[in-house]
Design goal:
Blueprint: H1 12-41, E1 44-48, E2 53-57, E3 63-68, H2 70-73, H3 77-107
Antiparallel strand pairs: 1-2, 2-3
Helix pairs in contact: 1-3
Length: 115
């Protein structure tokens, strides 16, 4: 009987690799959960008109609040609408960049096949 002690074609080295991969996956899962909580608590500000309008979102793009300077109100509805839209886009872009950077930090150092 050859290959005794190999068990299902896995050598001991492969079992160690597999155990290590599971351990890393578990660490990533725990890290992802912490990251999600962190992103929810985060406040990321987008602005327009040199700060006339500010939009604050969480790290996972959930709108938190909008701050409009009294000076912006004198600009009229159409301009104010544009200012809010630009501030929203700014906040959204900053939050997606933050999320992507945090995810890259979380998964760096992992050799995940196919990623």
């Amino acid at each position: 009987m050859t290959g005794k002690g190999q068990g299902f074609g896995f050598g001991l080295g492969k079992m160690k690799e597999l155990a290590e991969a599971f351990k890393k996956a578990q660490q990533v899962q725990e890290g992802a959960k912490r990251l999600q909580e962190e992103l929810e608590q985060m406040e990321i500000q987008g602005e327009s008109g040199g700060g006339l309008v500010k939009v604050i979102v969480s790290g996972n793009q959930e709108p938190k609040r909008v701050e409009i300077s009294p000076d912006a109100l004198t600009e009229g509805a159409e301009v104010l609408s544009d200012l809010v839209t630009v501030a929203m886009k700014d906040a959204y872009n900053k939050s997606t960049t933050t999320m992507r950077e945090r995810m890259e930090d979380l998964t760096s150092g992992l050799e995940l096949p196919g990623f």
